[in-house]
Amino acid sequence: MSRFAPLLLSALAVTPFVNSIAVPNQLHSVSRKTLKVREPITFPTPVQVGDLVSFQNGQLLRRDNETSPFEVFALESRSDFLERDVTVKRADPVWDPPLADIDPEDYEDYAIVKCGDLGHVKVGDKIGGGGSGTIYKAIKEDNTFIAMKAVNNEKERDLEWDLMQKVGDNPNIVKLHARCKLGTNYYIAMDLVDGESLQLRINSKVYSKLEAEAPVKLVMGQIFNAIEQAHSKGVAHCDIKGDNVLMSIGEADKATVIDFGMATTETKVKDINVAGGIRAPEVENHSTEEIDPKANDVWELGTLLVSLLIGKKPWTDSNAANAKAIWSKAAPTQRKDACKKEWPEFTDDFCDILADIFAQQLSRKPLETVAARIINPNLKIFDECEKNKKTTKREAAAGEMVVTNVIEMGEELVVRAMMY
């Protein structure tokens, strides 16, 4: 385990728990899956990620924003969990006809490929993708599922494979299994993460609604664990953003870093060609031909952290006026003051850390320094005095939860919520 483990375990002591219920849905069903859920209840209106819900006196209460009152959403809901089958909506790839009945010469017609030690794999529907490739769900001969990343360039595929082999296994980095080729696509077979992107939670303001510090530290601690290991092996990720972190749908709120398609082992580069306005100012401005990719990772991690806390990207890119107001200052105390001006809800201690992240390259602190300070359970992120000044001050009600996932399962929706 990384050396962040002791601090991370301390944070786990105040970690929210994830809880789920199932509600009727009229979608067509195709298969079944056993989940730990509550008894089915009926919701009169759609539930969405970011909704606030609470079980009180045998009722499920809901509000759709921080200031609206709670409304009764369902009556006589059971508070205990049970294991039962829930119908799955998505049509998963299946061996139909069975592999033994297919002529090997016809494998390509059925999207079947021999993929290293995995044996034969049948590639199914697209489930994601971005600038560095397309992700498909696939089924192995033992009827278990994996993900297959497809690119149309063998060299790019092999470079990503080699870099991830160099990084090695980590519980917070997607695990690779094999390489293969089907048609014009070059594939990497990897674990299928049953979850949704962290970006969805940012967009829905899951963490920012209640100014929840412990859940953010838990998520970021796992991402730090992944990137710190990569850095220790000489690899910079270069594309750290919400879309490249998957949150598992399960009892544990596990984060998995994906997509090393832009990663590098170079210690100095001339450019980092990623989109989304996440790059550090020295990259955005091309102010040096000796860009440090690891230092850029630290900037991107800081941007992701603030995004979780405020529910949106802090700036369009690092050249935006509010970003430049921080990083352009030479002295750490000046950057701290600029941080407090931009985000008065943050504590002085937290802005001290952000001043070491949102700095020019030569003044930016390394990941191991800032990460340990951020996940420290004694660090207060939000300033209580500033919270008290808010006219729309929010306090978590007893048993209040924020909806983190709404999973379409065919006959039902499985709704997962996080209690703070």
TrEMBL record:
Residues 121-379 form the Protein kinase domain. GO terms for biological process: mitotic DNA damage checkpoint signaling. The keyword Nucleus does not apply. SUPFAM superfamilies: Protein kinase-like (PK-like) (SSF56112). GO terms for cellular component: nucleus. GO terms for molecular function: ATP binding; protein serine/threonine kinase activity. Residues 1-20 form the signal peptide. Pfam families: Pkinase (PF00069). ATP binds at residue 149. Keywords: ATP-binding, Kinase, Nucleotide-binding, Serine/threonine-protein kinase, Signal, Transferase. Transmembrane segments: none annotated. The keyword Transferase applies. Belongs to the protein kinase superfamily. This is Kinase-like protein. It comes from Lojkania enalia.
